Amino acid sequence: MFDAVQDALVAAEAEGVSLGELALRTEAAQGLRTREQVETALGRALKIMREAIARGRQGDLRSVGGLVGGDAARLDHPRGPLGGTVFTDVMSGALAVQEVNAAMGVIVAAPTAGGAGVLPGVLLGIGDRIGADDATLVRGLACAGLVGAVVAVRASLSGAEGGCQAETGAAAAMAAAAGIEILGGTPRQAAQAVALSMQGTLGLICDPLGGLVEVPCVYRNATGAAIALAGIEMALAGIEFPIPVDEVIDTMGAIGRGMDAKYRETARGGLAVTPTGRKLAKERLVQLERRKAGGST
Amino acid sequence: MVSLLDIIGPVMVGPSSSHTAGACRIGLFARGLVGGTPAHARVELHGSFAETGTGHGTDRAIAGGLLGFLPDDDRLRESLELARQAGLELDWHKVRLRGDHHPNTARLTVTRGDQTSVVTGSSLGAGRVLITQLDGFPVEITGSLDTLVIVARDQPGTVASVTAVLAREGVNLATMRVSRRQKGGDAVHIYELDHRPAPEVMTAIRALPAIRFARAVERIS
């Protein structure tokens, strides 16, 4: 794939295609798989994303650690000023997938499992509203993949390396580009959506209670999806972020490298060490260790 | 080269691509190296694997990989119990490995029959892994292709004899790396292959004079 969003943007403009189309062409040109194989694999990913959203929205799942579950279903009856709009659909989808993930259900890591709710929430939340067909949604996934590949090369996609900015932050940037793709925006707008969403997640730490991918991860997928929507709206309006997109991505990497280990998935900082965070984690981990030792739960 | 499908994927059982899918793949590689489900595995968890592994299902994922389950196999959830049923004895340790290791690293000492192998692997994020040490030899194996692992006496012509067999059998090499700990001792050869070598290819390689050990490990992603 590409080492810079800017390179992809130049290539897409030269070929007169969207970033998603460019991503599919580039992937096929890499020679490992044919275009058809790539589209089939992304189509399968789309199907699993849909199923995970539907499963999570049923509202009856409890996570392995027992800390989360049932919140996606609460957004079926939202009470706020944005209730019933694409905004609540997107957040409910993001919560649903992440609740399935926390229950050790089947999801698509996009780019990671901890951030797996953001992209399906945004893509299908918008896609269902506009009646996008599967071919369009697959192009959206390809566009997201192109952005994620750049982030993987220039920064990181690992919470243990870069904090939550490298997981839900990267996912929000990917989802923002995917949103522009399926809404028919330009490659330039997609690149701007990446910059505009990622600047909003810079510095975000990874501080899971007890190391469980539950709290705050599930909720951070919802807020990550909301930030992606912010990036999409601003980019479609023609707003351009003053720092070039690849420099924003580099900044995420640099912040990650400078981030204290306690904020990188070790459960030694942030919300994980609040009095309540410690108490909840201790209760749940004792149970899990007991199960591992073969005792009853 | 990063593929779109590394980023949008894998399809996997939650909750963590690093701690669950990646950990599963490290287990799968160790299983491949001993050629099947081991009877015993000593698992040393380092860094974030040690600190937060239990909550992420890292233990179940590694056990599942050792049993041959892929990252999207929902039996991963029950793999500790299934390991007991399969006669796989697991011995868990939280450690700080010496040297410079990625935060998500595990060292697996696996025994099957008369073979014991030590595999150190890191989970790099998004389910991607890198095997960094085999029996004390530094290596770099991603497992995205079938991998031929050879331990041979460090003497001239060994690589040529192995590649001659591969060439004769039409097995194409993608990458190759040879390293040793000391001159004249053993060397480890890692060949990443475009095709899975047939059993007769492996027999031919094992019959070569300098070869101590040869195993084709199936791709793990």
**Quick check: average pLDDT of chain A?**
95
CATH topology of chain A: 2-methylcitrate dehydratase PrpD
**Roughly what is the average pLDDT of chain B, rounded to an integer?**
93
Percent of residues in helices of chain A: 55-70%
As a whole number of angstroms, the C-alpha radius of gyration of chain B is 17 Å
Count structural domains of chain A: 1
Ends apart, CA distance between termini of chain A: 46 Å
List the strand order in the largest sheet of chain B.
3-2-4-5-6-7
Main pleated sheet of chain A: none
Report the total helices of chain A: 13
Give me the strand/helix succession of chain A.
HHHHHEHHHHHHHH
Strand content of chain A: under 5%
Q: Helix content range of the residues of chain B, please?
A: 25-40%
Count of distinct strands of chain A = 1
Entry summary:
The complex is a heterodimer of chains A (297) and B (221). Chain A is an all-alpha fold.
Question: How would the blueprint of this fold be written?
Answer:
The complex is a heterodimer of chains A (297) and B (221).
Chain A: H1 5-15, H2 19-29, H3 35-57, H4 71-74, H5 86-102, E1 106-108, H6 118-130, H7 134-154, H8 159-162, H9 168-182, H10 187-198, H11 217-236, H12 245-258, H13 275-292
Chain B: H1 4-7, E1 11-13, H2 17-34, E2 40-47, H3 48-56, H4 58-66, H5 79-86, E3 89-95, E4 104-112, E5 115-125, E6 128-134, E7 137-141, E8 146-153, H6 158-168, E9 173-180, E10 186-193, H7 199-206, E11 211-217
Parallel strand pairs in B: 2-3
Antiparallel strand pairs in B: 2-4, 4-5, 5-6, 6-7, 8-10, 8-11, 9-10
Structure description:
The complex is a heterodimer of chains A (297) and B (221). With 297 residues, chain A is mainly alpha-helical. In chain A, helix 2 (19-29) packs across helix 7 and helix 5 (86-102) packs antiparallel against helix 6 (118-130). Chain A has a single domain, classed as 2-methylcitrate dehydratase PrpD (Orthogonal Bundle). In chain A, 62% of the residues lie in helices and 1% in strands. By secondary structure, chain B is α+β, with helices and mostly antiparallel strands. Chain B has 2 domains: 9-135, 60s Ribosomal Protein L30, Chain: A (2-Layer Sandwich); 146-217, ACT domain (Alpha-Beta Plaits, 2-Layer Sandwich). Chain B contains 7 helices and 11 strands. The radius of gyration of chain B is 17 Å and the shape is globular. The mean pLDDT of chain B is 93. The chains are: A mainly alpha (297), B alpha+beta (221). At the A-B interface, helix 2, helix 3, helix 5, strand 1 and helix 7 of A face helix 1, strand 1, helix 2 and helix 3 of B.
